[in-house]
Design a protein that fits this description.
Elements lengths: L9 E4 L8 E2 L12 E9 L4 H16 L3 E10 L5 E8 L2 H13 L1 H12 L2 E11 L13 E8 L5 H18 L2 E13 L2 E8 L2 H11 L3 H6 L5
Parallel strand pairs: 1-4, 1-7
Antiparallel strand pairs: 2-8, 3-5, 3-6, 4-5, 6-8, 7-9, 8-9
Length: about 230
């Protein structure tokens, strides 16, 4: 289990382009692979953020008893404030179904966290995503700052944009200022969306590194892949 799952860890939320049409089903080269990742984003009522974080820190062990938590973050910069997102790993869809059924029957989880927390949440969103073929889930070296960069890609999936996007991502990686945690391609939810999760030693090192990387022609060329 990764060392990035602390509820106290804060994340930089990168700019997200305008939402595209959602679908309950998408096709793509990763569709029939087993392991997938569920991205859950909760927007909290402004006055309830601290209360929610206290509840999750106290009770998260009840949820992780059922399935693996990759990470749980609160947003510090960018996008909508008073927001948390968390990523859960599942072996396959049958595994997720079993977990959801078990959670529904877990009285302690329901009574101590889920039911009391519903009144604190303003909005919920979730997506199911696969790691792109050339990415694997990495472990950050130590505590730091995380960034979830979200891109709305042109239709066609990794077969269309995979290689040039990989070159752009590696252009950032090779400069050494940031560590890639994983690159995910949505399968359920908003279509043609890619999430890139980064670890940075600090917000300042992230800012300096990105300024330099955007002068790299591989990064500039990747901009043609997006809507």
């Amino acid at each position: 289990m990764l060392g990035l799952r602390s509820c106290l860890t804060r994340v930089l939320a990168a700019r997200t382009l305008a939402p595209q049409m959602c679908s309950s089903f998408a096709t793509g080269p990763r569709q029939y692979d087993g392991t997938f990742y569920e991205f859950r984003t909760y927007c909290l009522k402004p006055s309830k953020m601290n209360e929610y974080m206290e509840k999750i820190k106290k009770n998260i062990h009840l949820r992780t008893a059922h399935s693996e938590l990759v990470g749980f973050w609160s947003v510090e910069f960018g996008g909508r404030m008073n927001k948390v997102f968390h990523i859960w790993k599942y072996d396959n869809f049958a595994h997720r179904t079993e977990v959801r059924k078990a959670l529904a029957k877990d009285r302690e989880w329901q009574e101590q966290f889920l039911i009391p927390s519903l009144a604190l949440i303003d909005k919920q969103e979730f997506e199911i995503a696969y790691l792109v073929p050339w990415s694997k889930l990495e472990k950050p070296p130590k505590e730091g700052v995380y960034e979830l960069a979200t891109f709305q890609m042109k239709p066609g999936g990794p077969a269309l944009w995979g290689e040039p996007f990989k070159r752009a991502v590696n252009a950032h990686v090779n400069r050494g200022y940031s560590k890639l945690v994983g690159v995910f391609h949505t399968e359920y939810g908003t279509l043609n969306r890619v999430h890139v999760l980064w670890w940075n030693e600090s917000a300042d090192s992230r800012a300096a590194g990105r300024h330099e990387s955007h002068e790299d022609p591989r990064v500039v060329a990747a901009g043609k892949l997006f809507h």
